[in-house]
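Could you join me in thinking about how sequence relates to backbone shape in a protein? We need material for that, and I hope you will provide a protein of your own picking. Once you have written the record down, we can walk along the chain together:

…
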Amino acid sequence: IPDGENISIKSINGKGEIGPGADGTGVFLIVNGKLLIAEGSAEAVKSYYRIMVNGKVLMPKSMEDQFANFQVNGKTDYYPDGATILKADTEIDDLFISRAANTLYYCSGNIFFLDTGIDAEKLLSKGLKFTAKKVVIAESLIGKLVSLFDEEAEIVKVPDGTKLINDDLELKPKTIRKYGTRICVTGDVSIKDAEALSSLEYLLADGTVSVNKELE
């Protein structure tokens, strides 16, 4: 910071957000984590003396390369202007479809279409579109819903009947009893139980899978 300038340092550890009404005059903002920049916030961002993010930034595509006061030590993702931002791992079901007020949705992680009983006609009639890093979809739904996804999204086909576990998992017999033999896990998976492993038909894990040596 140059001598003589009245600059205050504001530090955020975790998640920060800059909206249209923010005033960063005289502020050096440091974010150690994730920073979300909302639509219509370009002037708010420019008002800061400087912004440094050690982690990840998510901003509208239209703001790419607009800011001279911005430094990112990590990754910058851009979401389509006008999109509603979803959680990094979101499962689309009939409740989501009935409540959907926008037509364009963005997910920085995985979107799951696993319920083969989903109201595909209602989904299509509402004109919903999805932009995501990865779309995990039940095999029988691909033909009906593929037109809803951004062409750059990675599409992963899973068997019908696959159930989502949005967490880390230690595979046990009770896991099979609760979720069935086809499982999709967003976190890490630990496999130590021979009975549970022998019952498992299909496993997709977004994290690391560790298996006891004797079960390898």
